[in-house]
Amino acid sequence: MEKGWIKLYRAIKDNWVWNTGDDFDKRSAWIDILLTVNHKEKKIALGNELITVERGECVTSQVKLADKWGWSRTKVRNFLDMLESDEMIKKQVINNKRTHLKVCNYGK
Fold first, then answer.
1. In terms of Cα–Cα distance, which of 53, 51, 34 is closest to 42?
2. What is the pLDDT of residues 35-55, one digit of tens each?
3. pTM for this structure?
């Protein structure tokens, strides 16, 4: 069965299997992105700015992802660039401080 889909609840991030303390591999990082993006539109405050983050999007930073995944910032940047070149995500780095990620085809 290589086709179809499964439900994967965000609560998996609270399970001991997810929280082993090991560094992430590329598969884990990709699934973490899928679990992190919004499942519905949401407004968030960033400093004195209120922004709308759409379904399938998140606002984070490469530093936060590096800490979370146990990677260097360079490795995170290269991974995000690779995902973008394969049209899996679109990313926008804002003021070298935050990164806006959008998962392509999130609704599919």
1. 53
2. 999 999 999 988 888 989 999
3. 0.87
